[in-house]
Design a protein that fits this description.
The chain has about 120 residues and is mainly alpha-helical. The protein is built from five helices and no strands. The mean pLDDT is about 85. Keywords: Capsid protein, Virion. This is Spore coat protein JC.
């Protein structure tokens, strides 16, 4: 999220008030100027309620896998929305990072499932 917010701030650098208002950022600018403020696509602020941790490793890892896939799709959609080659490069890098995260969570899930399947002797 930090990199997307920073990309957003960089893209707004140097924009005039009139340009921001014309682009539909008047309300955002009034509240936050050009500081990154985490919002979803509808303008709702990010909150910790978006985290879905249950405290059970297998359930949490499946949730992590789903989160990485959702982030990957979001980056793909953002790539489709821009024609700036540098922005596309940044978004592609972030998308690839989500793919690697997905793979690592998948490996962790496999290890946890193997561990829980083993008979425990005490």
């Amino acid at each position: 999220m930090e990199m997307v917010a920073t990309l957003f701030k960089k893209l707004l650098e140097g924009a005039t008030r009139d340009e921001l208002v014309a682009a539909g950022f008047g309300g955002y600018y009034a509240n936050h100027e050009t500081c990154p403020f985490y919002l979803d696509g509808s303008g709702s602020p990010w909150t910790a309620t978006y985290t879905q941790a249950k405290g059970e490793p297998i359930a949490d890892l499946y949730n992590d896998l789903a989160g990485e896939q959702k982030a990957r799709v979001t980056y793909e959609n953002l790539i489709k929305l821009t024609d700036d080659p540098l922005v596309k490069d940044t978004l592609r890098w972030l998308r690839e990072r989500e793919i690697v995260h997905f793979q690592r969570f998948g490996e962790a899930l496999r290890l946890v499932e193997e561990y829980t399947a083993n008979k425990k002797f005490y």
